[in-house]
Structure formats: C-alpha cells, structure tokens
Amino acid sequence: MLSVAWAPLYAHPLPENHRFPMLKYELLPEQLLREGIITEADLFEPRPLAETEILRTHDAEYYRRLVAGQLTRQEERATGFPWSEQLIRREVTILDGTVECARRALLHGIALNIAGGTHHAFADRGEGFCLLNDQAVAANYLLAHAPGVRTILIVDLDVHQGNGTAALFQHEPRVFTFSMHGARNYPHRKEQSDLDLPLADGTDDAAYLQLLAATLPRLLDEVQPDFVFYLAGVDVLATDKLGHLSLTREGCRRRDELVLRLCRQHALPVVVCMGGGYSVRIADIVEAHANTFRLAAELFG
Predict the structure, then answer these.
(1) CATH number for the domain harbouring residue 265
(2) Can you give the residue range of the structural domain that contains 206?
(3) pTM of the entire predicted model
(4) Where is each Histone deacetylase domain found (predicted)?
C-alpha cells in the first residue's frame, strides 16, 4: 500500500493562461488510478498545516505578510506567482501533505506527495515558484516530534539547486542537504549545500547515473540518516524546456530506482515529492513522474 497526498487545490492555483505546468497535478493521479498503481484508498487529502509548525521553519513576519497579501511587487515577482488567497491555501496544504507523508513513511516505509519540493523558499522569502519550503518544514516537524529521527538526509535531484533548503539548514547538523543540479541553471546565485554536485549542460544518462551511484551509497554510510526526503524533479529530462540536461525517460526512471532501492535496502523511511517538470509535451512530464510511483509500488508494496 502506498500513501499518496493529493488535494484538489494542487491543480488550480493560477489563472487559466498560466496553468499548463500545473496540469500534471490533475493528470498524474488519474494515470496512477487508471493503471492500478494506487487505489482511491491510497490517496489522502491534506489540510492546511498549523501555523505553529510552519513557524518552526519560516520567519513569522514573512509568513504574516504572505498570508495577508502584503508582499512587495518585487517579492511577488521573485516567486513567479500572482498572489491570491487560493494560492496561499494551496501552499499551506502542500506543507501538510509532506508532513503527513513523513508521519506515514515512519509507519509504512514510504509516502509520496503529488506536489511539494518547494526548495527555493527561504525562511524569509519565496523564489522560483516556491513560497514555503515543504521538505524543510517536514524535516523540522520530525526533529521536533519523532524521537527516533535524529539525522535526516535530503536528496534533491531536481535540475535546479535547492538553494532555499541549503540556506535553511546551513547551521543545522541534524539535516544533511545533498543537491545534484545543473551548474549553469537557476538559481544563478547558488547557496552552499552540505554536498553540491553541479552538472554540465548536456549531461546524459550514463554520466548522471554513474555519479549518483558513486555518491549516494557513500553518503548513506557517512551520514547514517534515520530518514530521507527525496525530491524527484523530472526537469532533468532532455525534453525539458528549462533543464539543459539530457536524461532520457529511462535514465530518469533508473535514477529513481537507484534512490528508492537504496532506501529500501537500508530500511530508511522516505518521503518523495515531485518537484519540477517543464517538458513541452505534458505526457512526458506525467509519464516520468508516474515511473516514480510505479517503482515505489514495486519496491515497497
């Protein structure tokens, strides 16, 4: 059984002319249900996360202004989103989805959020379509509420560096941040993760998978995490408009298999969030994300 977070709010945060990148939040659960990878019983609908949990990670004044719609025009432009009450409800619901996934992963080994991976959000600001940092909030939730979770590894394989996540945990030794991303891609000013592996434009399946296979097992041995958050962005695909890497869909699937198989072998609970995906064809995005769920069902089912 897979626990999968999904809410109708995931799919509709933007005006119609901005909605293409968001279609995956509607199409992905439909695909998974149609194939029988998940059932309706596997889906749970998150609710807005309590403010007290959000403020373990985010600056109180920033959060107050965000909720009240009082960001400056410059701050709003940096997020990429026009402000609306619906957008804020979506963001705090995504947070709860990842937090609840963390609770369920402790019980069942894995849980997946059909959203999340908002790794460009800092404590006091949003950037790059990220307003609040769901994996950071969930990591801090576990450190506060789960006595058996003393060390957390965040594996960020979105094509963009997890700059917000890196900054949030720069002085937190209990959270190790690992980001493998395009060297010349957004954000242009990178933060320092505990381990950054910048990749050249055009990096293909062989080079990518070789580097990941040489790195992640060593990290698990060195960090000895009790819990893993995995950001499985599919903007690493060669078809992606913003990614500049050259992975095939099969290469992306093998990436996910490597990460999830290692978590399974080490008996590490893992939460998976979808992250980015901006291929021209929506089918390429949905199919690549669906592979992540297929593997989760195969390895943890």
Answers:
(1) 3.40.800.20
(2) 3-300
(3) 0.96
(4) 22-290
User: Measured on CA atoms in the order 250, 251, 255, 261, is the torsion positive or negative?
Assistant: positive
From first to last of its 301 residues, what are the pLDDT tens digits of the chain? 799 999 998 976 565 545 556 789 999 999 999 999 999 999 999 999 999 999 999 999 999 999 999 999 999 999 998 999 999 999 999 999 999 999 999 999 999 999 999 999 999 999 999 999 999 999 999 999 999 999 999 999 999 999 999 999 999 999 999 999 999 999 999 999 999 999 999 999 999 999 999 999 999 999 999 999 999 999 999 999 989 999 999 999 999 999 999 999 999 999 999 999 999 899 999 999 999 999 999 999 8
- The domain total for the chain is 1
